[in-house]
Amino acid sequence: MTGTHLGMPAFPEAAREAVRDGVLRANLRHATHTIRDKRARAVAELADWDRLRAAGKAVKDHTLRHLDRYLLQLEAAVTAAGGTVHWAADADEANRIVTGLVLATGEREVVKVKSMATQEIGLNEALEAAGIAAYETDLAELIVQLGHDRPSHILVPAIHRNRAEIRDIFRTEMGRWGRPAPEALGDDPRELAEAARLHLREKFLRAKVAVSGANFMVAETGTMVVLESEGNGRMCLTLPETLISVVGVEKVVPTFRDLEIFLQTLPRSSTAERMNPYTTMWTGLGPSRGADGDGPTAFHLVLLDNGRTDTLADEVGRQALRCIRCSACLNVCPVYERAGGHAYGSVYPGPIGAILSPQLRGTSSEIDASLPYASTLCGACYEVCPVAIDIPEVLLHLRERVAQGGPVTRDGIRVTLRPAHGHTAERAAMRAARLLLDHPGALRAGMRLLARARRLRPRRLPGPGRAWTDTRELPAVPAESFRDWWTRERGNPQ
Ligand code: SF4
After folding, report:
1. Which residue from 268, 323, 355, 356 has its CB within 8 A of the most atoms of ligand 1, so it is best to mutate?
2. Cα(270) to centroid of ligand 1, in Å?
C-alpha cells in the first residue's frame, strides 16, 4: 500500500486516468444503463423471481458445504463417460497441465471460448511461451485480443470500446492473425459481426484443439454446460478433436435438475434474455461420439482451485463463490460505471471483483488491499445479484481484514495477517482518541486549546492526512466546544 490515502491507495490511482477519459465514460455509461434497464424489465416478468433467487442461493450454499463430495462424484461421472479429470491447485499447475495436453496432440494452435478461468491463470501467455497460439473466438474477447487489450467486463469484455474503435482494430489487426477484414469495413454492427464471422470460421475449420471454460458442471452426470449468445462457443466445443475445459471447482452443481434455476436466472440477469440463445452440454465421450461420432474424440477437464478452497474457509467471504458470473452487479455499480473494469486489476472487475480477487489472491498487493474500498456501499449490487451475494457485507469484512489483519487461510494453512501498511496512522489516531475519551479532563483541556488556536487551522493536513483534505474542506473549529456550550446553557452535566 502507498500512503496516499488512509485505506484507499491503489484502486484510486488505477482509476484516475479512466475517470478523466470522456469517451470511455460515455461508452460505459451508455452500455451499462442500456443493459441494466433491459435486465430490470426481464426480471420483472417473472412473478417467482425472489423464490428463484433464494433457490439458487440455497443450491450453491449446499454444494459449497459439501464441495468435496460433489467434486469426487463429478470426477467419477466424467471418467465413466470417457473424459479425463485433472486437478490443479494453482495457476502454474493448471497451465502446465493444459500446455502438456496441447503439446501431446502435436498441435501448435488452439481455439478458445468462455474461459474466464483461463484468463485468471494467464493461460494464453503460458501457451505462447510454449510456442502455442491461442485464438479467442468470443466476439468481445476477439476484440480484446486483436486490440492487445485487457477485458473490462465479465460479459462484454470490450464494453469500453465503441463501434468506430472496433472497426479500426479489425482493419489494422485481423490480417496479422489470419483472414484480414474487408477493405471497406464500416462500423455497422452487422458488418463488424460478418467480418468477425469470416475471420473466425477459418480458425474453427482448422483447429484440432479447443480450450473452454464452463458455466456449470453437473456432479450426478458429469455434464458440462456452456451458455453463450453467438454460437461460436458451440463451434469450439464440437468441431475440434480434443477439448480441454478449465473450470473453477465452485462451478459444480449436484443434479441436472438444479440447472433449471440457473437457466432462468442467468440469461435474464446478464443479457436480459428470457432464454439463453446457445446452451451447449456435453458429457465426456459417449458411445455415439468418440472416433465414429460427432464432437471431440478426447475430453480433458482441469478442475481449478487457485485460492477457491481458501476462500471457502472464510465464513463471511465464501458467499463470493456462489457467483454465476452474470455481471448484473457491474452494470448497476456507480463506481464501475465511472472507473471501468481495468482499474480493478483483475479478470473479475466491478463489485464481484472487489470481493473475489482479494480472496483468491490474498490482500498482500497494493491493488488487492485497495479493492474492498472500491465501492460506495450503496447496496445496488446485492439487490440485483441472482444468487443473493451480500457484496457490501463481504466488502466490509475485507476492509476489516485489511485494516486490522487477523486469521486467514492461505494455501490451506491458517495464518495471521498483519494490518496492511498505510493504516498505522489511522490506528495511532484511534488510540489517541481512545486515550482522550477515557480522560475527560484531558479532553476538555485539549478542546479549549484547539478553540484558542482555531485561527491557526491549516487548510490542508500534513502527512498521511493530506489525501483526505485534497478532496474535502477541513471543518472550522468552533469558538466554543459543545461541552462548554452545554455547561453555559444548562449547567454542569456532572
Ligand atoms: S456477484 Fe451476483 S450479480 Fe455479480 S456477477 Fe456474480 S452472480 Fe452476478
Report:
1. 323
2. 9
What residue's CA is closest to ligand 1, atom 4?
A: 329
Rounded to two decimals, what is the model's pTM?
Answer: 0.87
Mean pLDDT of the chain: 91
**Ligand 1 atom closest to Cα of residue 351:** 4
User: Is the shortest distance between the CB of 394 and ligand 1 below 6 Å?
Assistant: no
pLDDT of 220 reads 97
Q: 195 in ligand 1 pocket by Cβ < 6 Å? A: no
CA of 327 to the centre of ligand 1 (A): 5
SS (H, E, C) the chain: CCCCCCCCCHHHHHHHHHHHCHHHHHHHHHHHHHHHHHHHHHHHCCCCHHHHHHHHHHHHHHHHHCHHHHHHHHHHHHHHCCCEEEEECCHHHHHHHHHHHHHHHCCCEEEEECCHHHHHHCHHHHHHHCCCEEEECCHHHHHHHHCCCCCCCCCCCCCCCCHHHHHHHHHHHHHHHCCCCCCCCCCCHHHHHHHHHHHHHHHHHHCCEEEECCCEEECCCCEEEEEECCCHHHHHHHCCCEEEEEEEHHHEECCHHHHHHHHHHHHHHHCCCCCCCEEEEECCCCCCCHHHCCCCCEEEEEEECCCHHHHHCCCCHHHHHHCCCCCHHHHHCHHHHHHCCHHHCCCCCHHHHHHHHHHHCCCCCHHHHHHHHCCCCCCHHHHHCCCCCCHHHHHHHHHHHHHHCEEEEECCEEEEECCCCCCHHHHHHHHHHHHHHHCHHHHHHHHHHHHHCHHHCCCCCCHHHHHHHHCCCCCCCCCCCHHHHHHHHHCCCC
Task: With a cut of 80, say whether residue 151 has pLDDT above it.
Answer: yes
Q: How far is the CA of 342 from the centre of ligand 1 (A)?
A: 18
pLDDT score recorded for residue 93: 98
